[in-house]
Write a structure and sequence with these properties.
heterodimer, A: alpha+beta, six-stranded antiparallel sheet, flat, B: mainly alpha
Chain lengths: 800, 200
């Protein structure tokens, strides 16, 4: 065929795709008029339209494996050392396992493991020899014994006790074991592993296929293949190089295994946790949304496991690539308990706590040993209180951030807040002797508080959250002789919770403070007005805008009654933010403009408070799509913030994000990306990975990546943002809806059309209901939905 | 080993500095890495994970480029070059195997469920890599860019957008080229191709 002829045919094939199905035949007649051969040719190509999928599937992995890591299979009847092979039992990455017997001793059957040829790096051989030595020393009824080993024609092999059994997960399903029975079986496994650990052996490759249950129901632990002799008191270090250079099963690997961090018994403990999670919930703790190996690795290191009791009620898509399938709660529950609800009830509380503790990213926060895990599970079976639920509040928040800088930074902010409060109060109180005593009592309380959290007493560094928790607890019984001070201090702690992003705690604490203060002061008071304003901010961030507006109006009304004009700005700004959400942009804009003028007059041009209002005003413009107006405001706001705070501050990070959004909306993707990246870097460092602003930012960045076609990275970011936002915001919240809609755009881009449609519709619906039809977010969500629907119609037409 | 490492670094530097030819020189040097990674992936035995060209190239990219700052276009260029490499590896292997088969002494290894490596989807089974390669050569003679689209999509696993960036055309163009290229290839591999016979 000539290139010209092909171009001619090609253009007809292209055009065909664009023509309505019912018109195609006549169109083709027309197009090929006078050239019947052309028509026949075009049709001969069109005949393959239904087979287009065939080339959509990537080439099978088999030839690639063969090409890159060939495997010469041994044959039945072949002699390996003194062993005669009978048949292949199974094949793994490192080699194959055969049923074999010693020459002339037919009755004793064994499992013989032969190293994959082309795989014999010195590393592998060393590992094999390791395994031989280790296993020879391990005699336990639940550990498969090593019998022999050697080299035959340059290939290493070793010989193990033949276990006729079923992998533990399949066994549990086949026998429909209840949750309690699964735990009992699992406990026997714990015992075997604890025994190995006592003998200084790590397994490091625990997974269902390495744990067989015999017909008599006895678990046998196989394949201490990569276990290393553990010298007492010392951790095993991974050898030089990346973590991927050592064999492990990603699904069950611990975060430190992936990180290449030092390994200890705690890594096995983690893998056991994954296994138990899987046995109880039918899914993996971190793999919920992972679509690929890198995504799973990322999730293992960074994503919080979903509570087992929550997980079992979810529909989920699990597995990789072609193996992805829908997991239904009813199917999972069926082999375990009566119903999904019953299964969730069974898991809620104790088992949630035990599993989450075992699966903590930080080895130091897990159980100290497999024995401890077993002990807690036995407590659960005996209906005794479990250890895992003690002090869980403090861990849950701080498991990631212990080594992070943000602790220092936020801690400094918190101390500043408390300090400022103390100074303000003692200034107020300075005048009389009685008041001096009050002030002294207050500092005593604070000093005591910090002492309680000193590192050497708790055995670890204090956490801000822990400190505030302790403070709140102590305020329940202390300072009762100073109810007003107590109430104000409680309010301060509420603010700290708020700054840390713990909105529910913030709300409760602030509410308690308000009640106490109202009891004490009655009527109108500036402190009450301030507290109402704080409560409004909390309600706002929790997505309860009705409540936020109510608090805000109460606060403003009270201040107006008190006639304190100079303090009117912050609450009015709050109200403006709420108005903005309600789509009343004009009113909000007026308040912000007014505020800027007032503040300029009172504070000068470069005050930090002006920077804050500038950003808010910029948001009004952004929501209207007036990016030209928004950008310079943001830029100035950024400059002022940097002047006051330096670049490393959460407040700078927020403005950078806003600039990124504006740049993105204008289609300047490179500029937007730079803003997003810098903002994310600062935000993550200072606020941690689960903060609301960071989650929102990740969502924004993900949208940009979708436009760029970097879909896998986008998917990871979406997962993170969605799981963080879902934890913080209630259903029906507009930020959630906005993210969901954007996620829908991603799903559409990767062809997951049904899910995409749900997200797009639901997102647009909530946004329209909550934020009104005219704001930017709603418009964008609707545009996404329309584009999707349009595409759907087109492809429907194309399918005909 | 040390030399290889410097070579790789030097070539990567040259490439990220704007010399596209450096990437081609890099190709023979990374085959060893691919072998290692393939083995490591096998050793990991991730259930259900497919050891596919895309996965390997991604891993290679992370390994070589990971921490460098590389332009989005360069990234795509990397994937495009590696898709050629994948094609070569797969085709060479298939040819060797075919040659061995003629000799009659080769044991064809089939991977079964034990390894839990899923075979291709329903369509995959029917694709003969050698025939596809030859058909692709013929396509390249008529329409080089279109052949390139196939290479990027099928052997490199690039998305439509990525392929578009790599070829500096619109996504819509890639989409169309990909569709008609597949029609052409299927036609060649089916009735049309069989008539010509294999000359290998």
């Amino acid at each position: 065929m000539t290139p010209e002829r092909w171009q001619q045919i090609k253009s007809l094939l292209d055009a065909w795709d664009d023509i309505a199905p019912e018109e195609r035949a006549s169109w083709l007649d027309q197009a090929c008029k006078g050239d019947p051969e052309l028509r026949a040719e075009v049709e001969s190509y069109l005949a393959y339209e239904d087979d287009l999928e065939a080339l959509e599937t990537p080439p099978s992995p088999e030839p690639l494996i063969e090409a890159l890591a060939p495997f010469d299979e041994a044959e039945a009847g072949q002699l390996i050392g003194p062993y005669r092979l009978e048949r292949l039992l199974g094949r793994g990455g490192m080699g194959a396992v055969y049923l074999a017997h010693r020459e002339a001793e037919f009755e004793q059957r064994v499992a013989l493991k032969l190293v994959r040829s082309g795989f014999e790096s010195p590393d592998t051989l060393e590992r094999f020899h390791n395994e031989r030595q280790i296993l020879a020393n391990l005699e336990h009824p639940n550990i498969a014994r090593l019998l022999d080993g050697g080299t035959s024609e340059g290939r290493s092999y070793f010989v193990m006790e033949l276990i006729d059994g079923q992998p533990i997960d399949a066994y549990c399903e086949a026998h429909r074991l209840t949750v309690r029975d699964r735990i009992r079986l699992f406990l026997r496994l714990c015992d075997a592993l604890a025994f190995a650990h006592r003998n200084l052996v790590l397994h490091l490759d625990l997974k269902p296929s390495n744990i067989l249950i015999t017909q008599d129901g006895i678990p046998k632990l196989l394949d201490f293949g990569i276990g290393k002799l553990l010298r007492r008191g010392r951790e095993t270090r991974q050898e030089e190089g990346t973590a991927t250079s050592r064999p492990m099963t990603l699904t069950y690997a611990s975060p430190e295994q992936l990180d290449g961090a030092p390994l200890s018994t705690s890594s096995d403990l983690y893998s056991l946790g994954v296994l138990l999670y899987e046995l109880l919930t039918g899914r993996l703790p971190c793999g919920a949304y992972a679509e690929s190996q890198p995504a799973l690795a990322y999730a293992i290191c960074h994503q919080q496991p979903v509570k087992p009791s929550t997980a079992v009620r979810r529909f989920e898509t699990i597995g990789f690539a072609e193996n992805r399938k829908e997991l239904r709660p009813a199917d999972v529950a069926q082999t375990r308990e009566r119903s999904p609800a019953a299964l969730a009830r069974r898991l809620r509380g104790d088992l949630d706590a035990i599993l989450l503790r075992t699966l903590n990213k930080d080895p130091d926060q897990r159980y100290a040993s497999v024995e401890q895990l077993a002990l807690d599970l036995r407590r659960y079976l005996d209906e005794l209180p479990v250890d895992a639920r003690r002090g869980s509040l403090a861990y849950r928040t701080f498991k990631y951030v212990r080594r992070n800088r943000w602790r220092l930074s936020v801690a400094a902010g918190v101390l500043g807040l408390i300090f400022a409060f103390t100074v303000a109060l003692s200034n107020q109180l300075r005048h009389t002797e009685r008041q001096r005593q009050r002030s002294a009592r207050l500092s005593e309380f604070l000093v005591d508080l910090f002492r309680a959290a000193e590192p050497d007493r708790a055995g670890r560094e204090p956490s801000v959250r822990g400190l505030v928790d302790i403070g709140r607890q102590r305020l329940e019984t202390e300072l009762t002789e100073e109810p007003e001070t107590r109430a104000l201090l409680l309010g301060t702690l509420g603010k700290v919770y708020y700054r840390l992003g713990h909105f529910e705690d913030a709300k409760q604490t602030q509410q308690a403070a308000l009640d106490a203060l109202q009891r004490e002061l009655g009527g109108d008071h500036i402190d009450i007005a301030k507290m109402l304003n704080d409560l409004s901010a909390i309600a706002f961030d929790q997505g309860d805008y009705r409540q936020a507006e109510a608090y805000s109006r109460q606060s403003i009304a009270m201040r107006e009654r008190l006639k304190g004009d100079e303090v009117l700005t912050p609450p009015r700004n709050n109200l403006a933010a709420i108005l903005m959400l309600r789509g009343k942009l004009e009113e909000a804009e007026a308040i912000y403009r007014d505020t800027i003028t007032l503040r300029r007059a009172a504070l000068g041009d470069r005050h930090l408070k002006i920077a804050i209002t500038q950003r808010n005003l910029a948001t009004v413009h952004t929501l209207r799509g007036e990016f030209e107006a928004a950008e310079p405001l943001l830029q100035e706001s950024l400059d002022i913030r940097i002047e006051h705070l330096g670049r490393e501050s959460a407040s700078v990070s927020k403005v950078l994000a806003a600039l990124g959004r504006v740049a993105h909306a204008r289609g300047e993707l490179d500029v937007a990306e730079r803003y997003f990246l810098e903002s994310l870097e600062i935000g993550r460092r200072l606020l941690g990975h689960h903060h609301l602003s960071v989650a929102i930012l990740e969502g924004d960045f993900a949208r940009l990546l979708v436009e760029r076609g970097e879909l896998s990275t986008a998917s990871v970011l979406f997962d993170r943002a969605l799981s963080a936002l879902t934890a913080i915001k209630p259903e029906g919240d507009w930020t959630r809806a906005d993210l969901e809609s954007a996620y829908g755009g991603y799903l559409a881009a990767v062809g997951r059309l049904e899910e995409a449609e749900v997200c797009l519709r639901e997102g647009a619906r909530v946004l329209e209901a909550v934020r009104g039809p005219d704001v930017l977010y709603t418009r964008q969500a609707k545009q996404r939905l329309e584009a999707f629907e349009l595409r759907g119609q087109e492809s429907e037409a194309g399918d005909e | 080993m040390g030399d290889r490492k410097t070579d790789v670094t030097r070539l990567l530097d040259a490439w990220s500095g704007g010399d596209p030819a450096a990437l081609d020189q890099l190709v023979p040097l990374v085959v060893g890495d691919l072998r290692k990674m393939a083995r490591a992936q096998l050793a990991r035995e991730t259930p259900g994970h497919t050891l596919q060209p895309t996965g390997l190239v991604n891993e290679l990219y992370l390994k070589l480029i990971g921490k460098r700052s590389v332009q989005w276009q360069s990234r795509t260029q990397f994937f495009a070059t590696m898709s050629q490499l994948m094609r070569r590896i797969l085709v060479d292997h298939a040819r060797r195997r075919a040659a061995l088969k003629k000799g009659g002494d080769a044991v064809r290894v089939t991977f079964d469920r034990a390894l839990d490596v899923p075979g291709g989807g329903p369509g995959d089974a029917g694709i003969d890599i050698v025939a596809l390669d030859e058909a692709l050569e013929r396509l390249a003679e008529m329409d080089p860019r279109q052949a390139r689209v196939v290479e990027l999509r099928y052997f490199g696993g690039l998305t439509l957008q990525e392929a578009a960036t790599s070829l500096d055309v619109s996504t819509m163009t890639v989409k169309r080229e990909w569709r008609t290229a597949r029609l052409w290839l299927l036609h060649e591999l089916g009735g049309g191709g069989a008539a010509q016979g294999h000359d290998a």
